Amino acid sequence: MLNYLLLTKSKGINIVRGEAQYVWDDSGKKYLDMNTCHGVAFLGHRNPTIVNALISQLSSIATLSTSFDTPVRDVMLEMLDHVKPKNSSHVFLLNSGSEAIEMCIKIARKATSRKKLIAIKNGFHGRTSGSLSLTWNPRYKIQFGELLTNVEHIDASQSSLSAIDEQTAAVFFEPVQGEGGVIPLEKEFVKALSEKCKEKGALLVADEVQSGFGRTGKVWAYEHFEVQPDVVVASKALGGGFPVSAVFAPEWVASKLEEGDHGSTFGGNPLACAAVAASCEVLIKDEVPAKASRMGELFKKRLNETIAQNRIVKSVRGLGLMIGVELRTNPAATLSDLQAQGVLALKAGLSVVRFLPPYMINEDDIEWAVNALARPLSKLAQTSCA
């Protein structure tokens, strides 16, 4: 039998069904899913609006080159127009966040006729060659040798902004660094970063693959920082579970691109368009950002009330329903204990328990997760005192 090349550690459970914020394994055990495939299922597993849109589209046409017009694309564009980043006049659909970042690298270099790229230390932008060059953590790339040249990483501090100069094509940043540890950037730094890019003529590219589309309490996380990026990248929650990503750009950037500058066999296919249109419908009609803001504040409040005084806990942080609990120890054992109690979460950085729940979680779900986390942390604290 053919073996699957598993490049991630197995969790040891066989998930067979999902519904909204819950999944079930093959023994019938129910789990509260706060892993959600690194945030993909933010709109819930099998959201009926999205499922119905995909079924309907499957009944007509599923695949089509973007060289041809198709009605579902027009529907998608109309829906996206209500939630797009403010300065965007164009959008290009691809299949993954990494692929969208690759396109942004090309856009930046062509639009500015410059080569130098800057990213923020601790950031994560993907694992394809170009996106991996922008990713900070050396463990993801050191074994592959030299990737892109003319890439520089800077600290998230205003003193580091002198690196942005007349040779810089673009600066890539995550408003909330997800993989790096659920770290919201400081507002004053982001504002200074934006001003520096304007001063030097460099593009400011917001990587909203994980933070975007309502998760942080606003449609786009950059809105918390009172800046306007030139280019915005979205993925994960954008398709409600269907693999899709998007690059949003203003007219002056889009006008620099010509036929053949980029392409994608599956990008912008009719099913992707249907999924995005339906996801936008859910985001708007169910007031998803407002719910994420409200439940995120409650979640952090209960975490602070219940576990923040535990000596193992270093901090509780995040925006909306993008929450991290930083520990003074490796979180692997804690994540296993959470799973045993029916709560699925994931690691971020070296020592952070990351929660990326669907927007429809309720107060009972939050109590379930908080209590499940408190138990192993209490045991760890007692052990460390012994």
Estimated share of beta-strand residues:
15-25%
Mean pLDDT: 97
Distance between the terminal alpha carbons, to the nearest Å? Answer: 49 Å
- How many domains in all? 2
Low-confidence stretches: none
Name the CATH architecture of the largest domain: 3-Layer(aba) Sandwich
Q: What composes the largest sheet? A: 7 strands, mixed
Q: State the name of the first-level CATH class of the largest domain.
A: Alpha Beta
Looking at CATH, the homologous superfamily of the largest domain is Type I PLP-dependent aspartate aminotransferase-like (Major domain)
Helix count, per DSSP? 11
Give the spatial strand order of the biggest sheet: 4-12-11-10-7-5-6
Q: Helix/strand/pairing class, anyone?
A: alpha/beta
SSE sequence, one letter per element: EEEHHHEHEHEEEEHEEEHHHEEHEEEH
Could you name the CATH topology of the largest domain? Aspartate Aminotransferase, domain 2
Cα-based radius of gyration, to the nearest Å: 21 Å
Keywords:
single chain, 386 residues, alpha/beta, Aspartate Aminotransferase, domain 1, Aspartate Aminotransferase, domain 2, 2 domains, seven-stranded mixed beta sheet, four-stranded mixed beta sheet, 17 strands
Ordered list of secondary-structure elements with their pairings:
Elements (H helix, E strand, L loop, with lengths): L14 E5 L2 E4 L4 E4 L2 H4 L8 H11 L12 H10 L9 E5 L2 H16 L3 E5 L8 H6 L16 E4 L13 E6 L2 E2 L5 E2 L2 H14 L2 E6 L22 E4 L10 E5 L1 H4 L15 H16 L2 H19 L6 E7 L2 E6 L4 H9 L2 E2 L1 E3 L3 E4 L7 H23 L1
Parallel strand pairs: 3-15, 5-6, 5-7, 7-10, 10-11
Antiparallel strand pairs: 1-2, 2-3, 4-12, 8-9, 11-12, 13-14, 14-17, 16-17
